[in-house]
Amino acid sequence: MDLLASLNPRQREAVLHTEGPLLILAGAGSGKTRVLIHRIAHLIQGVGATPESILAVTFTNKAAGEMRSRVSSTLEDSGMALERSPFVSTFHSFCVRLLRRYGAPLADLRPGFTSSFTIFDEADQVAAVKSVYREIGIDEKFMKARALLSAVSHSKNHGKTPQDFYESAEGPQDDKIAVIFEKYQALLQSSNAFDFDDLLLESVRLLKHSEQTRASLHERFRYLMIDEYQDTNRPQYELMKLLTGAAHNVCVVGDEDQSIYSWRGADIRNILDFEKGFPEASVVRLEQNYRSTKRILAAASGVVANNLDRKGKNLWADGEEGSPVLFYHAPDSDAEARYAARCVDRHLTENPGKNAAILYRANSQSRQIEEALRRINRDYKVVGGVSFYQRAEVKDILAYLKSATSSANAISLMRIINTPARGIGRTTVEQIENHARRAGISMWEAIEQMLSEGRFPARARAAVAVFHRLIGGLRKQLSDEPWYEAIPWIMDESGYRSMLESDGSIEAAGRLENINEFINAAADAYRRSESLDEFLDQAALVADTDQLDSSSPVLLMTLHSAKGLEFPLVVMTGLEEGIFPHGRSLEDPAALEEERRLCYVGMTRAREQLILIAARARRRFGGGSPELMMPSRFLKEIPRDVLQSVGQQVSPSWNTGDGYSLDLQAEQHEVRETVQRRLYDGPTYNSVENLSGFFAKKNLPVPANLRRPAQAKPRSGAPAQRMPAGGPAWRARHTSGYRLGEKVRHSKYGVGTVMKFEGDGDDTKLTVHFRSAGLKKLVAKFAGLQPA
DNA sequence: TGAAAGATCGTTTTT
DNA sequence: CGATCTTTCA
User: A544-590, pLDDT tens digit by residue?
Assistant: First the structure.
């Protein structure tokens, strides 16, 4: 079979461009994955590259697995079976392998580093921060551990050390964060542990530091490919640059309209800088959509056209008109769930063999939908959510294994020192912690010292001795027997099994089942001749159990997890202001644009039918009375002629009769008009080269996520910006003297956020979102706004 | 010390 | 509502 025959000219161009840097701008459903697969196949079959000289990086483990299997089946189809596969993995997995295998020189830079480091997942990170809190005597009233970690992560990804953080501190709060940051990092190092960010950063550091390592990698990997390039962050960009040797054989694929991870540090500058970093780069655009009907595509395009911050890509489809996008305005969230379930049920009955997805903004929304599906006996599968390896019981067992393999790991040790309860209480643990800190030794060493020096009271001594013997026994077990057998050993010897068995509750039974499943997973890994280290890496890096097989035809997942997937029927739920767009984004224009892109991603998952649902009322927390919800602004951005309302209409439109809704509707209309003008009049920033020039000419502020971060407060959207944030001082001032996103006070409406400018100087019309009064349009010189 | 009741709290997205 | 932390009491 000819590999190229099934491709359109653009796609073919991308596949055939094998030498030198290549940027593929690929719209939704434009066959991006196909191009990548065929490109790999072509490299092997046409160019004669060895499979192992190709490194392909994907965003999720799931995508990596899929790509691996599709490459081999494509090659098989064209009569070429591979014994070795290309190296396909996520950035994070790749870095783990890199550090384990080539990491030795890193010990120069990171004292105590050994290749048997452990990975701290999110729960470990939180535990580490809490441990630092205890050490310096503050509690979470200062700042939630997770919030603090966002600040730390943000700093790290922008190349900031605790010292840098301290120097740019804006007040005592920041000073404190800097201290915690430093101690957190020290704790990681003394535990020989890496958090997710460290995996990338230290890999970059290693490659910068060791020319030899760089050389071996260039020798090994001749061709580099990166999928979902719009969602890469700065360290990933640097890593890419370091990995492409002199040949610059790197191919990146992305779509800025689908950039939905800026909160995690994804940086659209990576697309811009690609051509700066590689001036000889070629650009290929894939703009033909093969996935969705014309109506679905029109609806999605209509929404995303409201973003100012985009390239104005021209996605077109050749296929069927399709049926209109349906909108159901449910009386409440329960009715929403029932309607979603009914749609899916009918679809599957009428189209046996097909599948469907129900999408929502936040995982917590899945509950009611699950209930509705159960009530009509429809099988479903929830993707993501609380992952298998995050379950408490599995984490406990993992902590035993980690404590045994890495005695420096204080976090794992703390987790299981009294689980199951063995009489080591708070006081005893504190004593050990203090001793370790004072003597500058690990928790494990502290335990040994204190035992031999007789520092415990009798009862505690006995308990600690039991624990000490237990871990010692586990180490022996691990060195003598196949490692997976250690898990049942732990269950029996630690008393974990009897703890669960004597409990007798349904939950305990479920936990036992989970652990059995875990033992099976371990045994499988062992049979695949994976080492314990590799198995533990997997557990930390593989978020969900990766139900690639997705045995059920009904999938429930967040909009984020739907990225990269497609379904004949897609039902999107919770299209309400505050839910989607999410409440946290309402006052930040850049965050709002990301929500809009997320909406675009969701809608373009649908092949044949797209159904949108909003609830008029929703209970936000368990108790209280239901809240009235405003329909999402995204609904109003969908061109009328492709949208059809269904179900009983309580009122003629979604206008609920209060001022907010009216204003909003007028507002949206104008936004659309302005955008149209901006997109098609004069130079569009259609080519990557003239992006910032485009904004300069239009006298527009360069959107925040296209701009270089200023010294003090970089970026928006990223978590750190939400914390102390005395207002986004880094944003350029409009000629009216206000800034986008700035907080202002109005004599009547109270505090609000500046969302939009029209006109210049004193005559500027400001659109301000007030917490109490909603969106208002005000003329700058009459509004009498005070800074808030 | 630890289980159990009570209070609190905070809710986005994920490698 | 549910997870998690705190307090209470045996």
Answer: 545 445 568 899 999 998 988 899 999 999 999 999 999 888 888 88
C-alpha to C-alpha distance for A189 and A442, rounded to whole angstroms: 12
- In Å, what is the CA distance from A216 to each residue of A76, A243, A345, A714, A746? 30, 10, 55, 36, 62
How far: A86 CA to B11 C1' (Å)? 41
Query: pLDDT tier at A657 (50, 70, 90 boundaries)?
Result: very low
Q: Is residue A355 predicted with pLDDT exceeding 80?
A: yes
CA distances from A478 to A326, A402, A483 (A): 58, 11, 5
Q: Nearest-CA neighbor of A153 among A187, A197, A190, A191? A: A197
A270-292 average pLDDT score: 90
Neighbour tally for A446: CB within 10 Å? 22
Protein residues in reach of strand C (CB < 7 A): A 130, 139-140, 367, 392, 621-623
Nucleotides of B under 7 A from a protein CB: 1-3, 10-15
Give, in Å, how far the C1' of B4 lies from the CA of A538. Answer: 37
What is the nearest nucleotide to A364, using C1' and CA? Answer: B11
Q: Measure Cα distances from A436 to A449, A563, A564 in Å.
A: 9, 46, 48
Using the CA of A367, which nucleotide's C1' is the nearest one? C1
CB–CB of A543/A387 below 8 Å?
yes
The tokens describing A171, both together, are 């007040």
Three-state secondary structure string covering A354-416: CCEEEEECCHHHHHHHHHHHHHCCCCCEECCCCCHHHCHHHHHHHHHHHHHHCCCCHHHHHHH
CA of A428 to C1' of C9 (A): 21
Higher pLDDT, A145 or A503: A145
Q: Could you read off the pLDDT of A236-278 as tens digits, one per residue?
A: 999 999 999 888 999 999 998 999 998 888 888 888 778 888 9
Q: Is the pTM above the cut of 0.85?
A: no
Nucleotide nearest to A264 (CA to C1'): B14
Report the nucleotide nearest the CA of residue A139, measured to C1'. C5
Check residue A775 and give its pLDDT.
58
- Position A321, amino acid: E
Does pLDDT of A91 surpass 90? yes
Residue A659 has pLDDT above 80, yes or no: no
Q: How long is the CA A406 to C1' C10 vector, in angstroms? A: 38
Contact A625, A344 (CB under 8 A): no
Q: How confident is the model at residue A683 (pLDDT cuts 50, 70, 90)?
A: very low
Q: For residue A652, what are the contacts with CB-CB under 8 A and spacing of at least 6? A: none
Report, as residue numbers or ranges, the catalytic residues of A.
32-33, 227-228, 258, 605
Which residue has the least CA–C1' distance to nucleotide B8?
Answer: A141
- Spatial separation of the C-alpha atoms in residues A502 and A185, rounded to whole Å: 40
Q: Which amino acid is at A555?
A: L
Cis amide leading into A420 (omega within 30): yes
CA A628 to chain centre: 30
Residue A188 in tokens: 């990681």
Q: For A717 and B4, how far is CA from C1' in angstroms?
A: 42
In sign, the C-alpha dihedral spanning A715, A720, A722, A728 is negative
Using C1' positions and the CA of A598, the closest nucleotide is B13
Q: Which chain C nucleotides are covered by protein, judged by CB under 7 A?
A: 1-2, 4-6
Q: How many CB atoms lie within 10 A of CB A38?
A: 26
Q: What share of chain A is helix, strand, coil (3-state, %, to 5)?
A: 50, 15, 35
**Which residues, by CB, come closer than 7 Å to strand B?**
A 59-61, 90-93, 122, 140, 144, 146-147, 196, 260, 263-264, 361-364, 384, 418, 421-428, 459-460, 541, 543-544, 558, 560-561, 582, 584-585, 591, 620-621, 719
pLDDT at A144 over 60: yes
Under the banding of pLDDT at 50, 70 and 90, the label for residue A660 is very low
